[in-house]
C-alpha cells in the first residue's frame, strides 16, 4: 500500500476540483472536494464574494456549462502551505470551453490563478475558501 504525503493529498483535491468540473461530476465535487459551505470569490469575473453551499456552486456551474460541448481545465505550478489541519494552495490554471455550434468561434479561454484554502475534515481535505483571479480571456467570450 502506498503512502501519500499531506501535500500529495492536497494536490489531489485540487486536481479533483478541475477533473470533476470538466466531467460535470457534481456529486463528487460536493462529496470529495468542497466543504458544505465555501467562501466563494469569482469577483474578478464580476459578481460578489460570498458564502455559498457546495450544492449552489455546482448548480451555478451546471447552468453555466449548459449547451457547452466540452470544458477542459489545465492546472499546475502549485504552491502549498500547510498549517496543521488547514492549508493554502496557489495554482495557475487555464479553462477552455468548446461549443461546436458557436457562430463567432467555437472556443473561449480563461487564464488565471486560484487561491484555495483547505481544511482537514474526518473524510479528508476539503476546499472551504475558493478565489479565482482572472488574468485575461481569449476567444468568443459568450460562445454565441
Automatic annotation (TrEMBL):
It comes from the Bacteria. Pfam families: SnoaL_4. Coiled coil: none annotated. Gene3D superfamilies: 3.10.450.50. Residues 7-130 form the SnoaL-like domain. This is SnoaL-like domain-containing protein.
